[in-house]
Amino acid sequence: MTTAHRPALSGTTGDGGESRRPPAGVPARRRRFRTEAVSGYLFVAPAVILFAVMGLYTIGYGFALSFATWNGFTPNWKWVGLDNYADLLWRDPVYAPPVQAAALNTLWVMIFVPLLTVAVSFPLAVLLNQVKRLQGVLRSIYFVPYVTSGIAVYFAWRYILQPDGAVNFLLGQLGLGSLQEPQGWLGNPDTALGTLIVVIVWGNVPVAMLLYLTGLQGINPSVLEAAQLDGAGWWRTNVSVVWPLLMPLTAINVLLNLRESLHGFQTFLVMTNGGPGTHTNVLGLEAYRLAFLENLNPTLGLSSALGWILFAVAMVLALINLRVLRSRV
């Protein structure tokens, strides 16, 4: 008795194997995918070209300029290699001392701005997180310093800190006339830098507080309840439970404030311009002066070199912060 052979099904070979022919719709899908890919490239091309011209070219141009002397007007540079870096750090008697003094002031800012920002923003976020009513209104009020125009805020602070400003007036009304500053809080070399640090912290607290508040609202309530059942009070719970859980956010806040302290100079430029004397001069402001306030002196290379030094320091700090953060996660 013979067995009838069934005809091979469509899409299969006679021996039962799968056919190598692709489905009929595959070429059409491939063509459509290629068309969409080309369209996507065309859409992003202007942004990529703009970044290449305004970003990569500018970065490369500035890096090359750090090895040359130029005043911005002569047609040619004068290549000097690493002399700009040596002149800024120790060798040049004209440019090295101001840079060293500015580096010391920048160091104080980098230490106290992150420290005070965290010390103020974390307790403020904890208290705000416990408020049940008008929390949105309070958030908006605390966030006002960040969204207000920086230049307007700086001029307002200058007026408040003048010899006849609001701070001295308030101290006099409270019977604390001995604490008044007759020269103004920005005119006294002993108080100028500390006053600017307070102003910077006042502007940085809103963002840090909102980051902490977001982290607090993401903590599992059962963790806090377990700590309370173990006998931990409000203070112990926040110090031993909440603070360690928010350590990654603390690292982010510290890194953001370090970057702002290292590169930012707008506050110092508008409020004191580095004075009195050089007591509030910082590295960012010194780089600005070398680039734009040296008349026709060929100091653009020095300014670029100082900018790249700041960039290198920022990268080192970011790597250290990332390493510490990974070790705690």
Would you tell me the overall average pLDDT?
85
Helix content bin:
55-70%
Number of strands: 2
* Straight-line N-to-C gap: 75 Å
Strand content: under 5%
Question: What's the helix-strand series?
Answer: HEEHHHHHHHHHHHH
Q: Name the strands of the widest sheet in spatial order.
A: 1-2
Largest sheet geometry: 2 strands, antiparallel
- SS element count, helices: 13
Assign the structural class, choosing from mainly alpha, mainly beta, alpha/beta, alpha+beta, or little secondary structure: mainly alpha
Overall radius of gyration: 30 Å
Poorly predicted regions are: 1-17
- Global morphology: flat
Q: What's the oligomerization state?
A: single chain
